[in-house]
Amino acid sequence: MFIEIEANSSVPIYLQLAQQLIEGIARGDLKPGDSLPSVRAFAADLGMNMHTVNKAYHYLEEKEFIQIVAKSGVIIQPNGIPKASEKEKQQLAAQIRPLIAEGLVLKLSEEEMVAMLRELVQDIKEGKL
Amino acid sequence: MFIEIEANSSVPIYLQLAQQLIEGIARGDLKPGDSLPSVRAFAADLGMNMHTVNKAYHYLEEKEFIQIVAKSGVIIQPNGIPKASEKEKQQLAAQIRPLIAEGLVLKLSEEEMVAMLRELVQDIKEGKL
DNA sequence: GACTTGCTCTATCATATATAGAACAAATGT
DNA sequence: ACATTTGTTCTATATATGATAGAGCAAGTC
């Protein structure tokens, strides 16, 4: 797993970390049952604070993408991650919606945005930045 | 323009306001040259602070969706909003990317996400919540 | 000339982000 | 058995952001 953190981003670094782990799962680089580094080791590796890694882990745990086993370690959801519930789909749509609206204001056609989405899926699966 | 602000959202209310104005533009409800309420009047109408509306306006001005004419008023970009530049497209893609990745983790297929996008475009154009 | 306009300034309060260090108790590795 | 590692919890500090509040300014509008 290669993690790239932009210090000068408006996206908090705990979120950047969580998002890149999510991409790792999407890509299949991180599989069910795989263990993640300890908060201390990961923090040292990434040059950030232990509590920041911890926050990223809890963010992912709340989404049920990982399991945090106290005093033991952190693993990718061992039974596999279930398909999106209706609630999760709606939450995703609600988050994407303002971006689509902005695209429309910028005169992007529906087809252009569909193409953009398909390219993003490819990029993510290929681990392409 | 009907504006709905959720007080208990994690999205700042100045951003909610800006996003709903963007939807108004996308929908064609707000056309080039249309004037927006004064910061004071809008704030009173929405039950929020003048400075919060002002922040939303400056957010939109930075995107060049509106023009703020000091000591006069605020209008939708009178010459029309130009088509997205490459930079704007990349910025949009960068913001959508983590959401697509999350969709993939939740086992949504590319086609399901395309369908979701098409529905969002419809909803926005119809002003449907 | 009165009113409205966006802008600026100071101020306060709450929350979020990030770092730091210490201590705890249980699981793990040898 | 013992030392190490683990996530958790606590206090603490610093910075940034979000939101509100009120006052005053200078220029545009009616």
UniProtKB/TrEMBL annotation, chains A, B:
- Which positions make up the signal peptide? none
Q: Which domain of life is it from?
A: Bacteria
Keyword DNA-binding listed? The answer is yes
SMART domains from the UniProt entry: HTH_GNTR
Write out the GO MF terms: DNA binding; DNA-binding transcription factor activity
Q: Which UniProt keywords apply?
A: DNA-binding, Transcription, Transcription regulation
Q: Where is the HTH gntR-type domain?
A: 11-79
Keyword tRNA-binding among record annotations: no
- Pfam families in the record: GntR (PF00392)
Q: What is this protein called?
A: GntR family transcriptional regulator
Provide the species name: Psychrobacillus vulpis
